[in-house]
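Ex. 9. Protein: VanZ family protein.
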Amino acid sequence: MKRETTGKIILIIVFITAFWFSSKPANESAGQSGKVLVKMKLITKEDAALKTKKYLILSRSIRKAAHFSLYFTAGIGAFLATGSLKKSILIVFVMGGIDEFHQYFVPGRGAQFTDVLIDTLGGTAGAAAVKLAIGKKINK
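Predicted structure tokens for VanZ family protein:
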């Protein structure tokens, strides 16, 4: 399979995944974060149920980490599809913007420009990582 095709497939999968997650109403999204934190043994079920300060901080952190890591993957796909770091950054920025715009219409959710910036940072890191990996492979 060509590098460009692989990149496009990665981008489509990431976009569908992001759209699916951002389609969840706020209470369902928070519940998912809480379940992950409980399974990781970072909080107790009681912390999640009572929405303790620890839960709120860790829940927000895990959601932001999810943004970064999902768009890190998008950055890899974008670079494979385009071969350009600048185009990759633009692609992940637009994807993040579209996702946040969509989320604005989901009950209890809202659009946050900071999430677009986190998405873009993750995508930039992913694109830069694959650019470095490909560059090293070519130079050897």
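Check your answer against this statement. The first helix runs from residue 3 to 22.
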